UniProtKB/TrEMBL annotation:
Belongs to the 1-acyl-sn-glycerol-3-phosphate acyltransferase family. Pfam families: Acyltransferase (PF01553), EF-hand_8 (PF13833). It is found in: Membrane. It comes from Crypturellus soui. SMART domains: PlsC. This is PCAT1 acyltransferase.
Length: 526
């Protein structure tokens, strides 16, 4: 797969060129200068422990108020509209929470625009979602949120969560998503409940773009108020993505900053058209466009599932500039359905083996995939047209599809690749291994000489899959040892979390229950 010589985009064959896709929204690069490191070292010994103590104290101080307000009430009582005395508790808790953020260095919070009344917009859609510090607008508004049911059992935090009467999502309930959407719709249309705040991206990003919005907030078909977040700080210690500094590092670095800025802008209420009411995906897309324009960023078709691909813990970790995220996006746009992907992979692999080393043009690629020629198909073809000759090696498409289909099963993809590239003797050359691995990682160039020589112990100049498998069993971290010139990750010098934790409040604030997906991801990471 090829990267444009002018950037990380992929060129379209011929004279036309596609605009390069945005950098991966799931990677946060944080590089500290020697002066910044010295400042952080000083703050760690002086300001950090004081701020941490007061922030924790304020959270503990809020607990008894929330506990008293909830005491003696059953689940049904907690889900009724606010009484007058709970409104007083609201004011006290908002003040305590504001002091907590003040202790964390957020000395002032810049609010733009006017927050709509619940009668004007029952749902607040907030983006971009990039950190657990995105809880700031939640504590300012005490709007209801969407949380997994298990959260209410967390000491201290669970009591505060229950107080704001969230919509609870149960992992054990097979019908959870439908019930969640129905509850959001019921509250939104009742006119009595507080507003519901939802982060429609469903996961944390680096704010370089807005990824695909999940439709849950838009299914009720009621007006929403878009809310955009900005963190205009010189050093971005706020962002907590799937690849980059971990949760504790972000907390430490942020509390070590003398001042942290945040801007919350309430945009005009978006009233859906009749077409948008009938089509939640269209409604979500149009609201996202409005928010992207307000932020001055692009939109991208990347999704939470792309995040899973970027983080799958096979032996080959995808670098931050991989083209495979772009490829996965095109696979979805083309219409290849996830539930049928493994069957499609087998079909395309079988056809590729019959074609051997034969290269094909765009029309033949269209016939091979059984899809008509379209701009999406042309873009996919261009990813593999390395020299812009108008022809591609379809084996590279099969390898890329295998990675997207089975991102954590590296050896299965490599075994399939060996079957595609091997000679009659069942061997491949160093050049073949280079083609296989650069395609599997979605990069333009890769040096496999060191790895090939390590596998080729008898110095025959060729290797079999059995040779590679035995080597991989003995060296499970062969990619880090033999392929990467530097650790794959954020390049910050702070290190990348080996096990990315659930990012802040991204799952909890999405009406779509993605907990099962997150569990699947964790299984891949273990």
């Amino acid at each position: 797969m090829k990267l444009s010589g002018r950037g990380r985009g992929c060129c379209v064959a011929g004279s036309r060129e596609r605009a390069p896709p945005p950098r991966s929204p799931f990677v946060h690069q944080l590089r500290l200068s020697p002066l910044e490191k010295a400042k952080i070292a000083f703050m760690t010994l002086t300001l950090f422990p004081i701020r941490l103590f007061f922030a924790a104290f304020m959270m503990l101080l809020a607990w008894p108020f929330a506990f008293i307000a909830s005491m003696g009430s059953d689940e049904q009582e907690l889900e009724k509209p606010l009484s007058w005395w709970r409104k007083i508790v609201d004011v006290l808790l908002k003040g305590i929470m504001r002091l907590m953020w003040l202790a964390g260095g957020f000395h002032w919070i810049n609010v733009k625009g006017r927050r709509a009344l619940p009668a004007e917009a029952a749902i607040l859609t907030v983006a971009p979602h990039s950190s657990y510090f995105d809880a700031i607008p939640v504590t300012m508004t005490f709007a209801s949120i969407v949380m997994k049911a298990e959260s209410k059992d967390i000491p201290v935090w669970g009591t505060l969560i229950k107080y704001i009467r969230p919509v609870f999502v149960s992992r054990s309930d097979q019908d959870s998503r439908r019930k969640t959407v129905e509850e959001i719709k019921r509250r939104a249309q009742s006119g009595k409940w507080p507003q519901i705040m939802i982060f429609p991206e469903g996961t944390c990003t680096n704010r370089s773009c807005l990824i695909t919005f999940k439709p849950g907030a838009f299914i009720p078909g009621v007006p929403v108020q878009p809310v955009v977040l900005r963190y205009p700080n010189k050093l971005d210690t706020i962002t907590w993505t799937w690849q980059g500094p971990g949760a504790l590092e972000i907390l430490w670095l942020t509390l070590c900053q003398l001042h942290n800025s945040v801007e919350i802008e309430f945009l005009p209420v978006y009233i859906p058209s009749e077409e948008e009411r009938k089509n939640p995906a269209l409604y979500a897309s149009n609201v996202r466009r409005v928010m992207a324009e307000a932020l001055g960023v692009s939109v991208t078709d990347y999704t939470f599932e792309d995040c899973q691909l970027a983080l799958a813990e096979g032996q080959l970790r995808l670098p931050s500039d991989t083209c495979l995220l772009e490829f996965a996006k095109l696979v979805r746009s083309l219409g290849l359905k996830p539930e049928n992907l493994e069957g499609d992979l087998e079909k395309y692999a079988e056809r590729a083996m019959k074609m051997k080393k034969e290269k094909i043009d765009l029309e033949e690629f269209s016939a091979y995939l059984e899809f008509p020629i379209s701009s999406t198909l042309e873009s996919m073809f261009a990813l593999f047209d390395e020299n812009e000759y108008g022809i591609i090696d379809v084996r590279e498409f099969v390898i890329a599809l295998s990675v997207v289909c089975k991102p954590s099963k590296t050896l299965e993809t490599i075994q399939l690749a060996f079957q595609l590239y091997q000679s009659e003797k069942g061997t491949i050359l160093e050049e073949d291994l280079a083609h296989i691995l650069k395609t599997a990682m979605g990069v333009s160039q890769i040096n496999v000489t060191h790895l090939f020589r390590a596998v080729d112990e008898e110095e025959k100049g060729e290797i079999t899959y059995d040779d590679f498998y035995r080597f991989a069993e003995l060296h499970p971290h062969f990619a880090e040892d033999y392929l990467y010139s530097e650790p794959v990750g954020d390049g910050s010098g702070l290190g990348t979390s080996s096990l990315p934790a659930p990012n802040g409040i991204c799952t909890d604030f999405s009406p779509e229950n993605v907990e099962e997906k997150r569990q699947s991801l964790q299984k891949k990471l273990n």
